[in-house]
Amino acid sequence: MNFNMSENLSIKTIDKNNKSILVDWSDGFKSKYNFLWLRDNCPSEVHPTARERTFNLLDVSEDIHPKNYSLNSEGNLEIEWSEGGHKSVYEKDWLRHNCYSIKHSREYVSPYRIWDKSMQDRFTDIQIDYSEIISSDDGLKKWLQQLHFFGISIVKNAPTDVNSGFDILKNISHTRETFFKTPFEVIDIPNPNNSAYTAAGLRNHIDLPYYEIAPGYQFLHCLINNATGGESVAVDGFKVIDYLKNNHPNDYDVLLNTSVKFVNRDYTTNTIRVMHKPIITLDHNNDYNDIRFSVAYMGVMDCHPDQMDHFYSAYRKLLSLLHDQRFEINFRMQAGDIFSFNNRRVLHGRKEYDANSGERHLQGYYMDRDEILGRLNYIENLNP
């Protein structure tokens, strides 16, 4: 594995205290490596093909410690352990890459490039041609980076054959199946089980907020669009909640800490899905992780009575901002476009269209967020 460590960087000295190996690096940085952490991560006890840890931490005591430790001729750390007659060798590049002292000394920088209406003027930043994606890993990497950093990408000039979305998505991973089937057909139909299957306008929303884990990414593949109207709308939910946090911090805190009930009553599957989750959630870095929002699927709120007044005040503020033209981009999907986006970040909507004016047919696919990021991690590691 390429850890991108400078060839000139080396371990200068090593020492230990009662719990850790202490490393002084040639660039002046000091690292601390806990004994149990080192024993748990011995490189020799990882399965060669499954790449899974085979060591059981319970096979050693909490008092395990180095009986001997030294730097070998290659400058790597060698430890002879006090238990089990085991010897571990840790490459200096691996130690540096996995140094938790360094990781926690750095200021976190969000990977997300949040955007507003001004993205309309630099639309090419979030566009890529189908041929570029399928011709090389570099093209696929560019697409995945757009999806990860901006949360949105418009693929141009894709084939318009039915179900042909699978041909490009298989370059990433498998799709996620839901009760809407894969692909789901976005057309005007009688007796729909979703308002997307009508010609009506759609307020800005995420899909399937009533699932415990809503789909991470959505891909809307336009096969034909000859109807009048029906322009697509996209809003960066992270930009909106960032604005809310900086300008209305009390409302932000309410939405971060209040669980909202989302409900789906699907007559085609005889199922009622109910999920309580806050509209805003953060990740382990306190960065934005999810925005969960859909007026259509918001259930009857049942938070504490003392909280209801505060919630509805904050909810109205957010509802207004998510439909504020300052944050929206608008575009008309053309045959061969694939509107791709992070479903738990980018809200999407649609203007009303005239179903009698022409045919409009999209096919939709879902994919878990893990698959996008996992594939990007792999390609970036191959081509750093």
Overall 3D form: elongated
The share of residues in extended strands comes to 25-35%
So what's the CATH class of the largest domain? Alpha Beta
Counted by DSSP, the helix tally is 10
Distance between the termini: 11 Å
What does this entry look like structurally?
The longest helix is centred in the last third of the chain and has 18 residues, at 305-322. The strands form seven sheets. A six-stranded mixed beta sheet has the order 7-8-19-11-22-9. The protein has helices at residues 35-40, 92-97, 100-103, 130-135, 137-150, 165-169, 237-247, 249-257, 305-322, 369-382; strands spanning 11-16, 20-25, 30-34, 66-71, 77-81, 87-90, 127-129, 152-156, 184-186, 202-205, 217-225, 228-229, 232-236, 259-266, 271-278, 280-282, 288-291, 328-331, 338-342, 346-350, 353-354, 360-367. The protein is built from ten helices and 22 strands. 24% of the residues lie in helices and 29% in strands. By secondary structure, the chain is an alpha+beta fold. The model has no long low-confidence stretch (mean pLDDT 95). It folds into two domains: 11-103, NE0471 N-terminal domain-like (2-Layer Sandwich); 117-382, Clavaminate synthase-like (Double-stranded beta-helix, 4-Layer Sandwich).
Question: Can you describe this structure in just a few lines?
Answer:
The protein has 384 residues and is an alpha+beta fold.
Salient structural properties:
NE0471 N-terminal domain-like, Double-stranded beta-helix, four-stranded antiparallel sheet, alpha+beta, six-stranded mixed sheet, 10 helices, 384 residues, 22 strands
